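Ticket opened by: R.M.
Priority: normal
Category: complex prediction / small molecule

The reporter submitted a protein together with arginine and asked that the result be attached to this ticket for the collaborator who will pick it up next week. Submitted input follows.
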Amino acid sequence: MSKKAWGGRFTKSTNHLVEEYTASIGFDYKLAEEDIQGSIAHATMLATQGIITVEEMDLIIRGLKEIKKEIEEGQFEFSIALEDIHMNIEKRLIEKIGPVGGKLHTARSRNDQVALDMHLYLKKWVKQLGIRLAELIEGFIQKAEENIDIILPGYTHLQRAQPILFSHHLMAYVSMFLRDLERLQDSWKRIDLMPLGAGALAGTTFPIDRKQVADLLGFQGIYANSMDAVSDRDYIVEFLSHASLMMMHLSRLSEELILWSSQEFQFVELDDAFCTGSSIMPQKKNPDVAELVRGKTGRVYGHLISLLTTLKGLPLTYNKDMQEDKEGMFDTVQTLDGALALMKPMVETMKVNQEKMAKSVKEDFSNATDYADYLVTKGIPFRQAHEIVGKTVLYCIEQKKYLLDLTIEEYHAFSDQVEKDIYEKLQPEQVVNARSSYGGTAKESVFVQIEEAKTKLQDLQGFFS
Ligand code: ARG
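Result attached by the on-call engineer:
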């Protein structure tokens, strides 16, 4: 049983179950790198301010660097009795360099220390996830360019609605992902705030220099209020919320890939490397990755609601409940990173079944709106045109025909305004390329989207790299 750092006031040792129940070392060991980085900056500042000597600082920093190496090499023994990563490292430091190690915690509390570690951790990961997301967007833009002309049915209510370009569909996701990337960038202002120097909650009596610590660690801002600095977890809630949105987008995409790769659709074929088989049905090739991305979305939403709920009843400032902020955040980072990393190659390698898509477009009534628009150009009010087309479609269904199969006489049974050019107007290519309004599915409009997306992406990449 090791002696607690806070043991002075206690006459009994901690119940073993309490130790296990309250310890966070089982998960906050992930903050080791950030903890050491923060401690080195803190020690440097303490020496600059004359709070410790330069020799003491040197000893402390050397000790911390050795500990970092021990951890990286798997030589470090984490102990539950020492509760968390902060005390595990401090104890080892004192073991290594003697009582002078105990000076590191001057003008600092674990409350501002853990807040600092979490900020540093998220800074690292938000950049990393931003880079991953940008790569995914790049992959989508490239896939759109490669498949610029392919036509497939567009859906509303999962019913065939109007033909669209496959590239237009991909660019819809690019728009969604670019918003996600912008949100990540925007959240940076609130992640990039330095909490150290808040002490336990009220600040410190020592002549510290918070600006120096912020500069050493690369923070743009410093928390203005010590109580807020140790109580704030908004930036984590915000991250979980942005992560939830991203997962929601990835999940909708997954759902489309699952549908499209089904026998019923056959619009795409996912590469073997991204599918798995069945243990009993030899013919099967399952889109497991897409299914799991869709499935794992639930746990990320869960982490968001969980942290919001944890925080809602907490009085200022630090409460032990806040230790619950970590596992959900670590898991979210990992879940999102995995999903982003897999989605890119999965979409890049999937085969697009152009013939099947084209066939689907020909065997439906997704050009019906264009027939109505055609009648409108002949001076027929849209409502009336809608009625005429509806009746024509009903006739086609009875006759087992599509609009392009009708003779001009058959058209005339519903409207004498129809002329031979209708056959040209209702061709899928024509239908698609007629929608050349800004943001529409015409090839020229998709090119505009691609150019604009590239510019936006480049700007954002500058921030994240
Ligand atoms: N392990 C703690 C956490 O994760 C560190 C802060 C502990 N502070 C305290 N006063 N007990 O929140």
